[in-house]
Amino acid sequence: TGYESGKGQIRRHAIASAVISKYLLRYAPPLQEDLFTTSLLHDVGKMILDEFIDNSEMAIHKLINDKEIDFARAEEEVLGMTHAEVGARILEKWQFPQEMITAVRYHHDPGAVPDSPLTHFVSLSDIISMLMGFTTDIDGLEYKGFPDIYKKYKLKEKHLEEILMESVDEVKSAITFERRMGEGEVPEGQVDRRKPKEEKWW
User: What pTM was estimated for this model as a whole?
Assistant: First the structure.
């Protein structure tokens, strides 16, 4: 229900985005922990809007098809706000730094803040996570790409492919660990050093 067709999709997408962000640092200005943390929190607004999205899914997808717009614009037209805007308001209430709030607010529209590298790289971690298959089914890849961002940081398709290949094992391990924590298999505060189970991780 809501953004998710399967329980935990929002959470898994957040974890994947955060892990991927570490592999983007080589192409980014010094962002350090801000990039990891903001990538982890970028879709927190979905958790608030989740209960309202059920009855609006058909209307949103009709707008996407009829007007050829992306999910964020259709979401705003139907709901009156986007999950990115709601997420930014949450971070404001939690008194996060302004740059992190901006990155959450504009992660689907990074061109609106040309002087915010944090926003640009959160957007990239979000997109690469989706390409890896970690997304919520309602929006999936219903977003436009960011060719201007790729050009600005001299990122080419081969670079994105490298990031996908290099990060996938760590993403899988992080999500498997999180799942086991949720099932009570790993005592809190301890690192699970067992060989990962052979299981589906998407």
Answer: 0.84
